[in-house]
Amino acid sequence: MENRMSSSDNFNLKNGLFFLPLGGVGEIGANCYLYCSNNSWIMIDLGVSFADEKFPGIDLLVPNLDFIDKIKDKLEAIIISHGHEDHAGAIPFYADKINCPIYATNFVYNLLLKKFKDYKISDKIKLKKIETNKILSLNEFEFSFLETTHSIPEPYAILIKTNYGNILHTADWKIDKNPIIGNSFNPSLFKKISEENLLALVGDSTNANVSGSSGSEKDVQEHLKNLFSRYDKRIVITCFSSNISRLQSIADAAKKNNRHVAVLGRSLKRMIETAIECGYLKNLTNIVSEDEIQYFSRENIVIICTGSQGEKKSALYRIAYNSHSNIYLEKGDLVIFSSKDIPGNEKSINNLKNLLIKKKIEIISNEDEFVHVSGHGSIEEIKKMYEWTRPVLSVPVHGEPIHLLEHEKIAKSCQVPYTKILENGSLLKIGPQKPEVINKIETGKMIVEGGKIYNSESDFIRQRIKYSYEGIIMITLIINKDLSINKDIIITHYGLPIANIEEFTSNFKINFIESYLKLEKNNNISENDDNIKHLCKKVIKKYCMNQYKRKPEVQTHIIRSK
User: How far from 89 is each of 115, 269, 376, 395, CA to CA, in Å?
Assistant: First the structure.
């Protein structure tokens, strides 16, 4: 029977094998998964997700790790499956909370080192490099790393061996027989898993509702070569900064068409620099700096930039709004969105596209031409994974509810005996005996503001949300020496449809002074500033509700004449 446990409860799991997602289940992003065997814990991934309109002015969310305080001494390590932001992006924000080692492959290791330097936290985190050809032993666990194919270098599924049985944590994967970067997908690695009996598969659900197979990055590269040849204007192309395979495809397509490549966006530049240091992105002889763009004719340049998700601080956003210092688009120029829309970002992306269209800029996305291929396996690939590994239990993760449900259907069609669809915070006992959810842990999201993390229920966030929906009115009152209200009342407002502030102020004066005089006569309201502020708020909110159906925040500043 499921219980509910708060972050203050003691936590002890001495017998059994358990799985606890803190992020990444029922959502895209913020991946954070805990495994426990005999009270020994490990975490796989610690990523970010995009904030939506629910949090005005906030770009990133991270998993709430309050639960970690209860198992801090028992958390052996954090293992990063690959370098995408939704799997590794939250680590710098938790530098003060993480006391255990973090294990990462060579590419992620170097990427994190750069981030730690930027955040000035290099001395706070114990970062260790994974030797992927060796078994990593940590107390109750043994980890083997199985190379897959994805859109970033060095993606690995993780085989977790315990005394209770083995678990395959697939992380992000697809089957690409002809990848741009890295080795081809090797099915034999996964066929061997079934020989030792696989207890559970915890698997990527991103494309569990997409029929067929995902396709190869090589095909995208060939199409980009053809696409570039059809245009004699400036080409701007946006993609995820961590999609190293796509960056290679774009650079090769540009070179084929005698175009140089410029890169805009800090995260893109960091990714490219790290990839080159680790031996990827070879033969990039056609790269030019941002300042050199002006020296090339429009038909001889391709600009790769951030902003595929409509982010307001991205390079493409600034270009679209004519606020970029070096780039200006002209009628007939081409902008290619070489990416998938992350659920929740559709409005921001469409707003950006519509602005570009109004400027007579041509737009191409994956709905128009083959400019993107997913880094995640589709239905037929997921079926193959189950046929190869034959797990006893399927636990879909890395997806919204619709993806998890479709993943479960695939597992059942492959005759997997048990399936479990979880929520973030569901404590699943995998073994021994029949798998069951035995507890519910409090989880949630923290917001990232100014490089620091705050609770999503923080007062300043509540205020920001209220202001954005209801508006704010600020009043300055002067109390005369005789305790009467000075006629010079100043009112300013934001976020309310007040067409005539003089009329609004006049109405407020009439209603407020009338109420003030009544209360002053009976209760001596003038002697207490808080009472006056309360009255201001009451009068304003009543008027605004009648006029605008809004309850604005009211702030009153009182000046007493001396």
Answer: 9, 16, 19, 24
Tokens found for residue 153: 């270098």
**What is the pLDDT, as a whole number, of residue 3?**
56
Residue ranges of the alpha helices (H) in 19-105?
68-71, 85-88
Cα-trace Rg, the chain: 28
- Give tens-digit pLDDT for 87-143: 999 999 998 899 999 999 999 999 999 999 988 887 888 999 999 999 999 999 999
CB 326 within 8 A of CB 290: yes
Distance CA 108, CA 88 (A): 8
CA dist 138 to 43, 143, 150, 255, Å?
12, 8, 27, 47
Q: How far apart are CA 160 and CA 431, in angstroms?
A: 14
Q: What percent of the chain has pLDDT over 90?
A: 70
| pLDDT-wise least confident of 174-188, 208-222, 337-351, 519-533 | 519-533
Is it the case that residue 512 has pLDDT exceeding 90? no
Q: What is the pLDDT of residues 28-70, one digit of tens each?
A: 999 999 999 999 999 999 999 988 778 888 889 999 999 999 9
Inter-CA distances, 518 with 48, 515, 525, Å: 55, 5, 9
- pLDDT reading at 6 higher than 60: no
164 close to 153: Cβ distance less than 8 angstroms: no
With helix as H, strand as E and coil as C, how does 451-467 read?
A: CEEEECCCHHHHHHHHH
Structure tokens at 221: 């590269």
Helical segments of 142-194, H only: 187-191
pLDDT on residue 510: 87
pLDDT for the residue numbered 7: 47
Maximum pairwise Cα distance, the chain:
92
Which position has the higher pLDDT, 288 or 517? 288
Mean pLDDT of the chain: 92
Q: What angle do CA 403, 240, 132 make, to 5 degrees?
A: 80
Q: Please identify which residue in the block is written with the tokens 């061997």.
A: 192
Cα angle at 345 between 225 and 305, to 5 degrees? 40
* Helices 379-389, 401-413: inter-axial angle, 10-degree rounding: 50
For the CA atoms of 401, 405, 407, 410, the dihedral, rounded to the nearest 10 degrees, stands at -170
Domains and CATH numbers, the chain: 3-212+374-455 (3.60.15.10), 217-364 (3.40.50.10710), 471-560 (3.10.20.580)
Buried b (16+ CB within 10 A) or exposed e, 305-323: bbbbbbbeebbbbbbbeee
- Cα separation of 76 and 43, whole Å? 8
CA trace torsion 210, 215, 217, 222 (10° rounding):
-120
